Fold these 2 entries.
Entry 1:
Amino acid sequence: MKLIRKTIKHLAAATIATAMIAGAASAADKLKIGFVYPSPVGDVGWAYQLDEGRKKLEAMFGDQIETVVVENVPEGPDAARIMNQMASTGAGMIMIGSFGYMNDGLKLASQKPDINFIHASGYKTAANFGNFQTRNYESAYVAGMAAGYASESNTLGVVAAYAIPEVVGIINTFTLGAQKTNPDITVKVVWLNSWFNPSKAQESAKSLIAQSADVIFSLYQDTPSVVSVAEEEGVYVVNTSSDMKKYAPTKLLASMTIDWGPHFVTQVKAALDGTFEGTAYWGGMADDAVGLASLSDDLSAEQKADIQSVMDEIAAGSFHPMTGPIIAQDGSEKIAAGESIDDGAMRGIDWLVAGVETKLPN
Amino acid sequence: MTATIIFILAGTLAATVPLLLAAMGELVAEKSGMLNLGVEGMMAVGAAAGFVTVAVTGSHALGLIVGGVAALLLSGVFATLSIVFLANQVAAGLAIGILGLGVSAGIGKNYEGTTVTPMPKLSFGALGDVPVIGPALFSHDIMVYLAIAAAFAVWFVLQRTKLGLIIRAVGESPQSAHSLGYPVALIRTACVLFGGAMAGIGGAYLSIAYTPLWADGMVAGRGWIVVALVVFGTWIVPRVTLGAYLFGAISLLELSIQGLGLNVPSQLLSASPYIVTIIVLVVISRNPVLIQLNSPMSLGQTYRPNG
């Protein structure tokens, strides 16, 4: 069924793409930039953030560039077709916004050396193919600090999709941040084992609240499902990707935000100057790529200042959220005092810190 | 612990509403011999149309009605294809399921990721204050109770009325029903439309009451669970109802168990609602004579009045 649904989506997407690209091809000597998103742009979430980056580009470069968007493109042959179509109708740069676009994008990049690609969340690079990710574990640490301050039951609940390394890393720093401001914190996790199921996400949040979690972390849920249920149930909530204040006006503790603007701007500038190189970008607070928004006024001024000072230290590079001593769930010391995890180990992290009660799925 | 018990009891009642409503509709359609596999798409259309209605008008009742009507129209396409043009039911059902998902994405396009206020809860006065039972059973919107009433009504009509007998006769042997003078095509069409409306109301409940937001794909497979529930419940209303509640309960229990931090792989827990529901329904329905008595003999077969 999913396949059939994908096919429908693809047909719709391809039709729109053809129409839009045909329109775009008429304008001359601008840098045409294609954007491929895996989901509808909507009001919040992953594709929305990517599109915000695109808008920054338009504001920055004005009529030097022209952007073409195709949203809701399933990974696989459909995405390959859209990219090919963009390439054959004059795009000079293509931003591909989903992990599963990687191999098709890379293949096209090797066939079309004049076109520069930037790829969200992958790990491969080529001369004209760069990837970009954000260090969400940095903002998760400070969001955890806020959660630690706000919690009275000393129990935090996380609603997460799958136990991939990035998610595991975020849960770890969230927990460490919370333990910094409240050493008695324990964290419960519900794994949805599904990328998209808003109703199940809400049920999960309610089950965590019933188990006395009084701050809920909506981790990579693309809809405001968890955030709005927290407002309804009267518990604090922290979320990723977009500012979701409007869905929980009184209970949103903080939103971990992503800003692709700065990276997109540098990449487009390089493409315009002819100096584009395929790099692996991992943007953190130092690059203004991640941060916190809508920090709740229920936190005291001192608490906010404390959070801000840690953010400053992370941005300055003087503090890494995964700095030892860090004890894993099984009691072993994973990182010795004074040491911090390196980027390679962080990218592949597969263990949870002590204080997280839920086990990793094997 | 008490909070978790309340969460599971109260949550089960609400979580089951979309499944139960759509399953009752599908059961009636299948009893008349019409296998409509488009439930997922019909629920999605109902969810999108209902959501947009509530977002614009603020009326939840109107949202349920519009959701029901929208899916009814879609099921009308299925009825036209498979009853008037004698198309294969499986193919036609799959086609309108796909169509429904596409249409729902179109209807909800401008509302992607937005929320509405959930359907208001009924007040039961002092009953709502009884410990455990109050919050578990008397803290719901009206649809939680109407869904149970709907299941009872469907059982009553099918088993205790002449209309039910006619529907079952049409599903058993359309030729015989036709020869007795019953309008087979009309009855089948009515049953399909009823199934569509119920799926639409179930879908609308999902997007305006249970998870009051719209996101493309939010029905997330529930339509397929409904089809499975009807078959594994062997077309018997109380069993299908039991299956729906069991599925709802296990899917919430699974989440609570995860939070406890037991050493059970979460993938297995996530699969447990499907496994347990199927096992239970298969075990209680293992009597082959009863299965044969209850399964509509002409299910899925195109009825050609002249041949």
Entry 2:
Amino acid sequence: MFSSFIALSQQAFLNLRRDHLLTAGVMISITLTFMAHIIDSWTLQESYQLLYDILSFSLNFFGSMIAIFWGTSCIGIERKSHYTVSLSGPVSRSLWLLSQYTGLFMALFGLIILNALIWQLSLLVLGYPAMSLEQITIFPLHFLSWAIISAAAVFFASFCSRSASLFCSWSVWIVGLVAPLVPIPKNDPLLEFILKFIRLFWNLQYFNISSNSGISIDSFLLTVSYAAALIACFLFAASHIFSQKDL
Amino acid sequence: MTSTEELVLQCINLSKDVTKPLSRKKIRILEDLSLSISKGSTSVILGHNGAGKSTLLKSIMGFKRPDQGAIHFAGHPLQTKDRREIGYMPESDALPRKLTPLESLVYQARIFGQKISLDQIMELLKKVGLYKHRNKLNHKLSKGMGRRLAWALASFHKPTLLILDEPFSGVDPVGRVDMAAWIKELHEAGTSILICTHELDLIPEYTNEVYILNQGKLVFHSNSPLPTRDTMLPHLKPVSEDA
């Protein structure tokens, strides 16, 4: 069973590696890095903070977009080519779904490593010091947010059409980013409850650090646990739904 | 009568309904369908388009869940691990698009837990005429080549039961001859074969059993000799929905 799981995960990774989105992701990263340096020469703001903000935005926005696209396409219940051959083997649907997510996780990991390398290299070329250990936490934090949103996309893709799962994933991603920033109203108990609930259970701002000083290792470990719990919930639900579904 | 030990596959009273998305009307795709496949036999399921042939095969392969009935493999309820002994050639357009024929076979062998050397895979690719195209992405293969790869993926592990869904569809005349020869080769080696088709002319002459489905019901069953075309044809005519 383990060798089947590894083979399926590698197959999913290979599928995503050959996707044009990976090339697009790397190109966007390189373009934004150069744009950041151009804007840097025009502005009076502290240049390092500006670079850091642009990096954070590009990782958050473009990375999440790619994670959502990959999450919905790696399950793709409308596309028989995705599952027919592998599911005709001695593989349960839950194992198949988990292996697809593992392949996706590896592809996202590859993407964040590429982004980190491009960014560090350009900082060094422009004469800035290399990022400190705490500043580097921006990469694993954004990677975790991609992993969560892609798990959400896998969840929606396990029972929705591709366009519906893309729409739902984008919607929950925006809710997770915006809702924690909305002030909690005191005169509307229902809205207050909803906002508090989202802040507790679906708070993507934990992964969106704006200060260039990074976060402490303790907070980082807590955030990792939060992400792991969310991913586990999404995958458990997705696997349960996908196992019951007619394909 | 065949004893249960001699049966590879048994479908017992299978029924399956689907709901039309817009009208929410329920349609019966399979109705109280029972059939058995004996060890080493070749069986053919015939039926017009939409008769329920593919739904039956998808139910056997676990892609669809019957609402009623049971499927048994070698005398026990069919489980995921039993699919190690089943080869399935789906309808066209079901190959992993971004893999090459070589990669598809290497991964499939690992998924099935089969220890097959690269040389054996190359031999298989030569046999099915895909050696020259082994590094081309599957979605760039012609339809006929795709069917050849689908055959290789279904049969590489020498299954006990081979299920073929429209194996000749989209295949050129030379490919049809090759495909027929490969099916015969496995039949002679003792593999049980279940072929689903709507083409009467392509039924192998050594077929042991013929089943005809019409509107999800089993309307004809014959176990050797192979019935004549005239005997089968009336059962293949689709029943009007108004009737």
